[in-house]
Amino acid sequence: MHRMATQPDDLLSLANELHRRVIVIDTHCDTTQRLGADDWDFAARHDTGHVDIPRLGEGGIGAVFLAVWAKGPLPPGDGAAAARRQIEAIQQATDRCARWISFARTADEIRAAKAGGKIAVLIGIEGGYLIENSLDILREYHRCGAAYLTLTHGFHTDWADSSGIHEPLPPRHGGLTPFGREVIAELNRLGMMVDVSHVSDAAFWDVVETSTVPIIASHSSCRAVAPHRRNLADDMMRAIAAAGGVVQINFAPAFIDSHYPDLDPEQVARWFADENANKPPLTEHLTSIDCVVDHFDHALRLIGPDHVGIGSDFDGVPALPSGLEDCSKLPHLTAALLRRGHSEADIIKVLGGNVLRVMEACRNR
Question: pTM to 2 decimals?
């Protein structure tokens, strides 16, 4: 049964109430890169960037996965060193801010944080190159609390092909190598979620064939709505759903908006390298929140409410849609889904219930 209100303010009030009552989970934020800055305080509200503790609270977000990422490819040893520094930064931040946040590894720990009035913080390793071709390093990340591994980023690893981001990449392996399949098997054994965001189509199908537990796409949207290589085709989304997994919709305009202008990859790289917090946007083109909702609508129709979630890419993109400028605005997405006629019961699954289910399925195999 759909619960609908007729006035926008009523819908937003309902969305805010829903966020207070249930567990809202964002499976991909790049705020980790800010945690290492001496002049940036996670506990303070900022006018720049997309995520901090006050704005997480305003948005009613109950759990956030912080991505561990380093620009690559990297020389041997540098990837693991960068990952260790970032994991330590996350752990130190949760210790300093223990009044408001709690480090979590499991679905039960997320629920416990919510019950205690805290926001759960989890770790996702974004990029298989950070394991340095070593299952021992993967196990180390797991011991440190990492909940998922994104198999590639914007370039091929030695064992898995990437989709590329701003430019297509010619295949290197044609999917996963035998060692790549070993990585999947070890992730399954450890209970870490396998994340197929950023992988090539061929690598995706190898993962589907190899994994014995549900997989996730921590921050990927729908290719049928916007034909970007970072998005998932309908048959890929159906395969994730058939295996019990979840597709977390990405908010990045470059991926979700087919009218977003093509940008020079070198310009994009320079923008990300610029540490000025007040740097101007790369383009004046403004994507609407309706574009994001179109991706949710398509995914919900195609694979159903048990297999869709939120993976914003906050703090990892140079622009966001109007109405979703930072994490405090997330109730506007929920209000828009209500306005489109989606039921509260279905939206609760999308907000976080589906992720909790997959986390439990991976650990209890």
Answer: 0.94
